[in-house]
Design brief:
- The chain is mainly alpha-helical.
- The protein folds into two domains: 38-128 and 232-385, Orthogonal Bundle (MetI-like fold); 142-229, no CATH class.
- 73% of the residues lie in helices and 1% in strands.
- The chain contains 21 helices and two strands.
- The protein has helices spanning 3-37, 54-60, 63-75, 79-93, 100-112, 115-125, 132-141, 146-168, 174-191, 200-205, 209-215, 220-224, 234-237, 243-258, 261-271, 275-283, 288-299, 301-317, 320-326, 341-351, 355-384; strands at 40-41, 49-50.
- Strands 1-2 form a two-stranded antiparallel ribbon.
- A hairpin with a 7-residue loop joins β1 (40-41) and β2.
Length: 385
């Protein structure tokens, strides 16, 4: 190596030294320490005691761990909506409109706002007495025909789907369309109607939040209002229908993530799509939908794949701050209906003082995230290409 190259290397290492030192002290060392700690029992008041694989055996037989894993996955239901919303926002904000920079800034503001402030703001929005959510929903849900309108809408949607399938099969004869509508009507009663009368459907509705939620549509004004003693936050503190707390958190997560980094990534991807492709498709008479499906979507597929992978990783890791500030892990019989794996690590370490077990749960989470990410990279990249 020439003297000049050595001098450049020394200066490069000098500038990298702060970041490398911080990475070693605050990232690498804690990772190795937590791995070793997973084989010990330690409560900070007594000396660590080596227990081998007992922590890992315990977590595999811990029913709470699997319930909290279910909570974590349930709260990730909103990921497709948030990713789709980010793409929709990016498409709108990529248009050449007056003041578009201002709109981009406004939609990105939630990302630079302190997360604690946003969570507390949404907690007040869900307030049954003064919250904006209830103020908007109560007049709608108080409409006498709201429940009927919801069921009719579901029926029509099922009918449209079946009609579309019949159209794809080139079965546009009136008899086929009538059969599709009758099938939709039958599906409507099979899915929504019979469970209201007990038996198997009552058992199923007690285990599927969607069915139970549809069954309680007529009662929504009661639990949304302050006339029923359901605690300070009915959205976040209802024990009789605790899954609504998860739903409230999902709505908040969708809102917070739509205009963030995913939107910026999509804006960059859309800017790299060659304009010549759109011009050629215009000459061929392609519609806007055809342009999106055959040009835009394939061109931004790598970005979508990256966003999906990172969103899944973030979803499996996250949930602690939102649940801690908005619900404190509750509601539910045991006060843990919104506890995620990340929150469980916090409770095990700092509330129960089981640092070894918390480290084991953290490494269990790492194995899950690593396996899913490896699977996505192994099979997802081929689909994108």
């Amino acid at each position: 190596m020439k003297p000049r190259e050595k001098r450049i290397l020394r200066w490069a290492l000098l500038f990298l030294a702060p970041n490398l030192t911080g990475f070693l002290i605050f990232t690498s060392l804690p990772v190795f320490f937590s791995f070793g700690l997973a084989f010990f029992q330690w409560d900070t008041f007594s000396a660590p005691r080596f227990i081998g694989f007992d922590n890992f055996i315990r977590l595999l037989t811990d029913p709470k761990l699997w319930f909290y894993l279910y909570n974590t996955v349930f709260l990730m239901i909103g990921l497709p909506l948030s990713i789709g919303g980010s793409l929709l926002l990016a498409i709108v904000l990529s248009q050449k409109l007056r003041g578009i920079i201002v709109y981009r800034t406004v939609f990105y503001l939630p990302t630079v706002t302190n997360g604690v402030a946003l969570f507390l703001l949404w907690k007040w929005l869900y307030n049954p007495k003064y919250g904006l959510v209830n103020s908007v929903l109560l007049p709608i849900l108080s409409w006498p025909y709201f429940s009927l309108a919801v069921r009719v809408t579901i029926l029509l949607l099922i009918g449209l789907v079946l009609k579309s399938l019949a159209h794809k099969a080139k079965s546009e004869r009136p008899a086929q369309v009538l059969f599709a509508l009758l099938s939709a009507f039958a599906l409507y009663w099979v899915i929504i109607g019979p469970y209201e009368y007990g038996g198997f459907w009552a058992w199923l509705s007690g285990r599927l939040p969607l069915l139970a939620g549809l069954n309680s549509i007529d009662d929504l004004p009661n639990w949304l209002s302050s006339s029923v003693d359901l605690g300070w936050l009915s959205w976040l503190g209802l024990e009789q229908a605790a899954y609504w707390a998860k739903t409230a958190i999902i709505f908040m997560g969708i809102w917070a993530s739509m205009g963030g980094g995913n939107m910026i990534l999509y804006l960059a991807a859309l800017a790299n799509v060659p304009e010549e492709l759109y011009e050629a498709s215009d000459i061929d008479g392609a519609s806007k939908w055809q342009q999106f499906w055959h040009i835009t979507w394939p061109m931004i597929a790598p970005t979508t794949f990256f966003i999906c992978v990172m969103s899944i990783i973030g979803g499996l890791q996250g949930g602690f701050e939102i649940a801690y500030l908005m619900t404190n892990g509750g509601p539910g019989k045991d006060g843990d209906n919104t506890v995620t794996l990340g929150y469980y690590i916090y409770r095990s370490a700092f509330e129960n003082l089981e640092f070894g077990y918390a480290a084991a749960v953290a490494w269990f989470m790492f194995v899950i995230i690593f396996t899913i990410t490896l699977f996505n990279w192994r099979f997802g990249r081929g689909a994108v290409n």
